[in-house]
Amino acid sequence: MAQQTTAPTEEELAAAGLGLAIDGEVARITLSRPRRRNAMTGRMWTELARIGHTLPDRVRIVVVTGEGPTFSSGIDLDMFRSGDVDGEPTPLTLLARDPGDTAALERTIAAYQEGFLWLRRADIVSVAAVRGHAIGAGFQLALSCDIRVLSDTARLCMKEPALGLVPDLTGTKPLVELVGVNRAVELCLTARTVDAAEAERLRLAERVVADAELESAVDDLVAQLLAVPADAARATKELLLQAEHNDLETQAGAERTAQLARLAAMVGTSR
Ligand code: CAA
Description:
This is Enoyl-CoA hydratase/isomerase family protein. InterPro entries: ClpP/crotonase-like_dom_sf (IPR029045), Ech1-like (IPR045002), Enoyl-CoA_hyd/isom_CS (IPR018376), Enoyl-CoA_hydra/iso (IPR001753), Enoyl-CoA_hydra_C (IPR014748). Pathway: Lipid metabolism; fatty acid beta-oxidation. Keywords: Fatty acid metabolism, Isomerase, Lipid metabolism. By secondary structure, the chain is an alpha/beta fold. The protein has two domains: about 10-225, 2-enoyl-CoA Hydratase, Chain A, domain 1 (Alpha-Beta Complex), CATH 3.90.226; about 230-270, Lyase 2-enoyl-coa Hydratase, Chain  A, domain 2. Helices cover about 45% and strands about 15% of the residues. It has eleven helices and eleven strands. The strands form three sheets. Strands 1-2-3-6-8-11 form a six-stranded mixed sheet, with helices on both faces. Strands 7-9-10 form a three-stranded mixed sheet. The protein has a two-stranded antiparallel sheet with strand order 4-5. Strand 1 (about 20-25) and strand 2 form a beta hairpin. The longest helix has 23 residues, at about 250-270. The chain is globular and about 60 Å long. About 35% of the residues are buried. The mean pLDDT is about 95. The protein binds acetoacetyl-coenzyme A. Acetoacetyl-coenzyme A binds near residues 73, 76 and 169.
C-alpha cells in the first residue's frame, strides 16, 4: 500500500475516529469513537500510520489516549463481517473476493501494522494514557508506546486467541520483552484481563495513578520528557533500542560512538 505523504485533514481524521492536536513539540492522538468504546477499524490504523509518516519534525512527544472511560475495545467487531467498514473492504471481504490472493491481504495487514510501528521511532517518545479497557488491538496499541501511564481503572486483555486469531498488530514482541515468554503465553492463551495493579507488577505499566489524576500525571511526564534536550533524548533512545540485541562489547562501542557525537555537538555549540 502506498505511503501517504500528506497529513490527514481534520475531516479525514474524524471519519477515521481519530483526533489529533499538535502543540509545539507535543502531539496528542485521541481514539475518538466513544459510542463504540473506541473500537478500531482498518481506516483508523491506516490514518494512524499517516499521522506518523507526516508528523512535523519538531514533534518529539506523542501521547495516545482514548475519549471517554475506555481506552479501546479493540478491533471493531464489524471488521469480522464481510462488506466494507468506513468505505474499505474488511480482511474477510478481501479473502472472500480472491481466496488465492493472500498477498493482498498480507499487504493490508502490513499497512495496519504501520499504524503501530512508528510509535517506536527514536526521534519521538510515545506515551499511552490508558483509562478503562484496552482490549486486543487496543492493548497492542498501548504496547507499541514507549511508556504506559495507567489509570487505576485500566483493564488489559489480549483477546485475539479467544476469537480464533493471533495478536498481529505488533504487540507480541513488546509483550514478551516486558513480561517474559511464559507470562505472555499465560496472558494470551487464557485471554484473561489484567487490572492496573497487576499490570504494574508485570511491568506493563510504567506509572499507575488514580483515575482523576491521569491527565495531570501525563502532563507531568511530558514536562519531564521535554526538559531533556531533544538530541540527547533521541541518541539515548537509539542506544536503548539496540541494547537488547547487542552483546556488551558492541553496546559499549555504540555508547562511545554516540557520546563522541554528543561531545562534538557540545563543543560545536560552545564555540
Ligand atoms: N466493536 C464494535 N462495537 C463495540 C465494540 C467493538 N470492539 N466494543 C463495544 N462496542 C459497542 C457495543 O456493541 C455497544 O454498542 P450499542 O450501544 O450500540 O449496544 C457499545 O459499544 C457499548 O458497549 P458495552 O455496553 O459493552 O460497553 P461496556 O462499557 O459495558 O463494556 C467493553 C466495554 C468491555 C469494551 C465491551 O464492550 C467489550 O468487551 N467489547 C468487545 C471487546 C472485544 O472483543 N474486542 C475485540 C478484541 S480482539 C482484537 O482487537 C482483534 C485483533 O486485533 C485481530
